[in-house]
Every structure is written in structure tokens, then in C-alpha cells.
């Protein structure tokens, strides 16, 4: 399973890009899954629901299952946050795993960067960022600069880099 990351500062458009990128890659017959990292505490459960109550009671894991999907909720309690490699065995094998976030992990990445937002770019300090997707033109010191609004071009870059052409 090939891993490729989409990184950038909060609010830069990573999720919007992924929404366009997934079908642009899948139309080439490439199976795609995603992992999203968040620095925020999140909860997929709602207070009062059975699964929420079971976790609050101390269950280490709660698996929710239906005829449409399933989800495994794992409480870290006092454990350290896992590294990305620890999540991979939980994923069904696909051709490409797109990772949103995990910006400091050592896998190839594209950075979504908008200079007009006034935030510093990640790419000058990170050699694993191979290209920058932006809605503006600027010097990238030899790294690829791809139009953020051209999901097909970004998909082609990822497919070519990972040699996923079918």
C-alpha cells in the first residue's frame, strides 16, 4: 500500500483538495483510502448513546457496526498518541492511502499553501514535501508548483511519483 500525504496549515484547503483528489485518482482504477490527523479532541459519538456510555464506563474499544459501515473507537486513556505506522494494519489494503495531516511524518507529501493567508510555508524546512499546491504563483526552489484548483494535475503528480499507473 502506497502512502502519500496532503499537508498544510489549518484552513488552507486540505480537505477540499482531498474531496476533489479522491475521485480524480479513483477514475484511474486506483483504490484509495484516507487517514486524517487532527490536533483537536474529537468525538464521533454522542452523549447518551449506548456506545458513548460504554466508553465512558471504561471500555478500551467500542466497535459500532451496521449494514452500511462500521467504526472502531479506541480510547487512548493515558497512552501516547500512536504513530502512523500503528494505524496501517487497521486499514484494508488499497493501492493508495492518502494522509491528511501527520505533517512531520516521513512520507512523500504535497503542501497546500496560500501565501495570501500570511502563514509560513512548511516546504522550505521539509524535504518530504515534493510539491506545493497553491492558488498563487511563487518560487519553490525547484519543487513542483501545481494549481490548487487542478485536482487532475495533482492526481497525475501523485500517480506518477508513486508509479501507480495501471
Automatic annotation (TrEMBL):
Pfam families: MobB. CDD domains: MobB. SUPFAM superfamilies: P-loop containing nucleoside triphosphate hydrolases. Gene3D superfamilies: P-loop containing nucleotide triphosphate hydrolases. InterPro entries: MGD_biosynthesis_adapter, MobB_dom, P-loop_NTPase. One of its GO terms (molecular function) is GTP binding. GO terms for biological process: Mo-molybdopterin cofactor biosynthetic process. Residues 3-135 form the Molybdopterin-guanine dinucleotide biosynthesis protein B (MobB) domain. NCBIfam families: mobB (TIGR00176). PANTHER family: MOLYBDOPTERIN-GUANINE DINUCLEOTIDE BIOSYNTHESIS ADAPTER PROTEIN (PTHR40072:SF1), MOLYBDOPTERIN-GUANINE DINUCLEOTIDE BIOSYNTHESIS ADAPTER PROTEIN-RELATED (PTHR40072). This is Molybdopterin-guanine dinucleotide biosynthesis adapter protein. It comes from Candidatus Terasakiella magnetica.
